[in-house]
Write a structure and sequence with these properties.
One of its GO terms (molecular function) is L-valine-2-oxoglutarate transaminase activity. It catalyses: L-isoleucine + 2-oxoglutarate = (S)-3-methyl-2-oxopentanoate + L-glutamate; L-leucine + 2-oxoglutarate = 4-methyl-2-oxopentanoate + L-glutamate; L-valine + 2-oxoglutarate = 3-methyl-2-oxobutanoate + L-glutamate. This protein is an alpha+beta fold. It contains 7 helices and 19 strands. The strands form 2 sheets. Strands 1, 2, 3, 4, 5, 6, 7, 8, 9 and 19 form a 10-stranded mixed beta sheet that branches. Strand 2 and strand 3 form a beta hairpin.
């Protein structure tokens, strides 16, 4: 006798077909709705970091049943979120900082965006947010930047700042990972990060409050890392300092929201370029990585502007302490200190306060010392498409 198949499509208790998988992030599904009225762009001289937003943004949502929705590029505006969302209750928020520039060819370009995508994946994984295809996200960012190209300032030291963000949107007060998420990208034209301009910044060594700690989240770009730094920053400002130099005991970690570098003269005339290692308390900055690569390449693979061919730079990731900084300052071998990051590129440090005393750095015309200036100029030229270096500049088309 032949066995008749059940009418529900199930034979021998097995489904006829596997259930559909949640959809992956797919840039080809993007829908674009352009603003009917475009905003007026403020003069470049009036731009302050992160205070003016461009006309459009990109949004896409995830739920565990359907996966990633079709992305949207649409007019900039408020988001609608449940008050119980995980991002509000448990700080499941990750963001990146990127910049777009106009090259000599008139095209918009990004600086090493794959590095930002790699770090965003790592950070989102640390707070257990749903995974996403960073190649598809980068396609969406390039599309958004191309649409917003009129917002990219062309003045030196200016750019379009790009903030990709992923937040947990699980609407439950249960203490658990968020299986719902929203990923969005906003853009902001910006000028120099520090209002002081070329003036070297003053840092106050802070050890009573810490930005990060061994085994913590300092090595990830999470929103929760930033709020605890605001109160110590206010304290430093009251004492006349621009930023905090974050310490773990005597050990230096970061300067404000920047990675920290020093330049020390060797007895043979060469220069050591030191920065703290990526030990879990240090954010793996894209600019930090770029500084190390370019400094290591001088003079064997490239000549950094303004530096002689006979000068060798020895880059080392090593522990730095306040005791060492004091010793180097006293014997005259501490030549430069600077903070680096996406927003500032390279910012000179003029003095460092610690235990009631200041370490005063050498002063240079224009603020930055020779090494800091060379690195700032070279990175700026790569970002603006004026100097080709490996695959660091990515055109948005």
């Amino acid at each position: 006798m032949a066995i008749q198949k059940p009418s529900n499509g199930v034979a021998n208790g097995a489904p006829a077909s596997a259930p559909a998988q949640p959809a992956e992030l797919d840039a080809s599904k993007v829908t674009i709705t352009l603003a009917k009225e475009l905003k007026a762009i403020p003069p470049a001289t009036e731009l302050k970091f992160g205070q003016v937003m461009s006309d459009h943004m990109m949004t896409v949502s995830y739920d565990p049943l359907n996966g990633w929705s079709a992305p949207e590029i649409k007019p900039y505006g408020p988001l609608s979120l449940d008050p119980a969302s995980s991002c509000f209750q448990y700080a499941t928020n990750v963001f990146e900082g990127m910049k777009a520039y106009i090259g000599p060819d008139g095209k918009a370009r990004l600086f090493r965006p794959n590095k930002n995508m790699d770090r965003m994946t790592m950070s989102a994984g640390r707070v257990a947010l749903p995974p996403f295809d960073t190649a598809e996200l980068l396609k969406l960012i390039r599309r958004l930047v191309a649409i917003e190209q009129r917002w990219i300032p062309t003045q030196k030291g200016h750019s379009l700042y790009i903030r990709p963000t992923i937040i947990g949107t699980r609407s439950s007060l249960g203490v658990a990972a968020s299986d719902h998420a929203m990923l969005y990208v906003i853009c902001s034209p910006t000028g120099p990060y520090f209002a002081s301009g070329a003036r070297p910044v003053a840092l106050l060594g802070i050890g009573e409050s810490v930005r990060s700690w061994p085994g913590g989240t300092g090595g990830y770009k999470l929103a929760l890392n930033y709020a605890p730094t605001f109160k110590p920053q206010q304290y430093a400002a009251k004492l006349g300092y621009d930023q905090c130099l974050w310490l773990l005991g005597d050990k230096i970690t970061e300067a404000g929201a920047m990675n920290f570098f020093v330049v020390v003269r060797r007895t043979d005339g060469d220069l050591d370029v030191y920065t703290p290692p990526l030990d879990g308390t240090i954010l793996p900055g894209v600019t930090r990585d770029s500084i190390l690569a370019l400094a290591s390449a001088h003079p064997s693979r490239t000549l950094l502007p303004g530096l002689p061919e006979t000068l060798r730079l020895h880059t080392t990731e090593r522990e730095l302490t306040m005791t060492e900084l004091n010793t180097w300052a006293q014997n005259g071998s501490l030549l430069e200190a600077f903070g680096v990051g996406t927003a500032v590129i390279v910012a000179a440090v003029g003095r460092i306060g610690h235990e009631g005393k200041d370490i005063n750095l050498p002063t240079y015309e224009g603020g930055l010392g020779p090494v800091g200036r060379a690195l700032y100029d070279r990175i700026s030229d790569i970002q603006e498409g004026k100097f080709e270096w490996e695959d660091w500049s990515v055109v948005c088309e």
